[in-house]
Amino acid sequence: MNLERLPNEEKLTLCRKYYLGKLCLQRGFAFLPFLWLVNVVWFFKEAFVKPTYTEQLKIKTYVKRSGLGLLLWVAVLTTWITIFQHFRAEWGEVGDYLSFTIPLGIP
What we know:
Layout: H1 8-20, H2 22-27, H3 32-48, H4 56-87, H5 93-98
Helix pairs in contact: 1-3, 1-4, 3-4
C-alpha cells in the first residue's frame, strides 16, 4: 500500500484500525501483535519524519502505543518460553501435557 496517495484523514483511520485490531476482535487476539508490528513499520515515517500536519499527533500516539504493546508482548512471550524450556522436565505430566512434542532422552 502506498501511504503517499492517501489523504491524512484516511491515514489516521487506517493507523487507528491497525492499532485497535478491528479484524482481530471478530477472530480473537492472536494476530494483534502482528498488526502492531505492521502499524509501526508502515506509519513510523508518517509519525516521526514527515512535516507536521494536524492528524500526525494522533498517528504518533498510535504508533508509540503499538510499539509499546509489541515490545510488551515479545517480553512476555520470551519469558514464558524461557521458563517453560527450563522447567518443563521438572513439571512432570503437566509439562508433557503442555508440550506439542515431547523430546526423547533423559531431561
